[in-house]
Amino acid sequence: MSDPLVLVTDADGIRRITVNRPDKLNALNAATLDALQAAFDAAATDDAVRVVVLTGAGPKAFVAGADIAEMADLRPTEGRDFSLRGQRLMRSIETLPKPVVAMVNGFALGGGLELAMGCHLRIAADTAKVGQPEIGLGLIPGFGGSQRLLRLAGRAATLELCLLGAPVTAERALQLGIVNRVVPATELEAETLKVATQLAASAPLALRATLDVVNIGGECGIEEGLQYETAQFGLMFATDDMREGTRAFMERRKPSFTGR
Length: 260
Ligand code: COA
Prior knowledge:
This protein is α/β, with parallel strands linked by helices and 260 residues long. The chain contains ten helices and ten strands.
């Protein structure tokens, strides 16, 4: 039997999802997109999962893009469907009700950067390279890259990356606001685990509300955004976790959150 396209493991509330086509630098073909979609759908509804870490198998790549060999002969309607398939996955990651951390262990190009940008946090190895090189193929980003890069890094950086197509270093990506942290490649696992462990111990409903208000706030006016924040803030007072968090502070102990 061939290796699974996506590996899934669990430890202490942290679900690790690994794109597993290292011989193709984890390029996203349709079957891998489907396997990732299934993995994220399962993570969304499993209460034991508090946080997801997404990475790529092998030493070289997070994901080196959509599968160019598979795309080469597509017709326009098939290209559109491929784009929709990728966009649906990235959107379900972005709207997952729990945090998703991209551990960017190497090339994150094209669909790979789009995948990382669908995640809520990005921690990159100092050896990683990121970019939107589709222009070199006579293409444009099709899994949401033009829109998410614009929102993350602004118009100047988006046009530079998408028009010129040249990948940038992790350090440059940090300056542009595309990744959150850059660490030596040898420390990537430990740093990501540290962040994921903190998230796994945090109050799940407050994490979810944070993701919701930021997702919605990014797309609406300030008045609606503030109203939504107030509504979510008020809702937190109905949770056991809010009582536990405030009491633990006053009793000078660590809180223990249950997600209720
Ligand atoms: N789609 C399909 N296959 C890909 C791929 C992609 N996006 N990226 C890499 N691969 C495959 C290569 O074809 C090669 O397969 P092979 O060994 O069967 O020939 C294998 O992965 C290793 O890649 P290779 O190019 O030999 O590695 P490299 O170290 O010389 O170069 C990159 C690494 C990332 C610079 C180069 O692979 C690359 O430019 N990839 C495409 C990036 C891209 O344009 N992505 C956007 C797609 S829309």
